[in-house]
Design brief:
By secondary structure, the protein is of the alpha+beta class. About 30% of the residues lie in helices and about 30% in strands. It has four helices and eight strands, in the order E-E-E-H-E-E-H-H-E-E-H-E. The longest helix has 20 residues, at about 105-125.
């Protein structure tokens, strides 16, 4: 049976990170910005049934839930805990095989992904979020924040600059990072 082991605050005032007793996913991260996107995922879809939930992100052993501004956590936490008690983890869609970088992917993209994987994504996961590289044109890297990071003011401002600084220092001083 799934249950919440701990609840962590995130830098996003409208998101909480719920740490679970069991692993949900081994390889993937799953981000849903609305109920329609979650239609084929019974786990996320069930969370969206809770009044006030506006986004769901989950990976490994945690779920980050973002609530609407007008909602309070009291109306979300108890229904979420009850949902976990009755949810069959086997209903979570099977993970797709994570594909490595295409053989034709440039060396720059490989270096960026490696640095993000080792230095940035673990920190973001600690705050209930994640990061996806959407693409690269020249030295401009386009990223998308996931989970609690998706609408957090510090992600959009400070974290974006910190990631850019790290990539410039460790990979190439010409790199620019933009949010998708």
């Amino acid at each position: 049976m799934l249950y919440v082991q701990d609840v962590d605050l995130t830098p996003n005032p409208h998101a909480l990170k719920f740490i679970l007793n069991e692993r949900l996913l081994k390889l993937e991260t799953r981000q849903y910005s609305n109920k329609e996107e979650a239609e084929t995922d019974p786990f996320a879809k069930g969370i969206f049934e809770i009044d006030g939930v506006v986004s769901v992100f989950y990976m490994d052993k945690f779920v980050a839930i973002e609530k609407s501004e007008e909602s309070n956590w009291g109306q979300i936490q108890k229904p979420f805990i009850n949902f976990l008690k009755t949810f069959d983890k086997n209903l979570i869609p099977e993970e797709k095989e994570v594909k490595g970088l295409d053989e034709n992917a440039g060396e720059l993209l490989r270096q960026i992904n490696e640095l993000l994987e080792n230095r940035v994504r673990p920190a973001l996961a600690g705050d209930g979020g994640g990061l996806q590289v959407i693409g690269i044109e020249g030295f401009t890297v386009k990223i998308r924040y996931q989970g609690a990071c998706g609408s957090c003011p510090s992600s959009i401002n400070g974290t974006l600059l910190a990631i850019e600084g790290l990539l410039r220092r460790d990979i190439n001083p010409a790199i620019q990072v933009v949010a998708a």
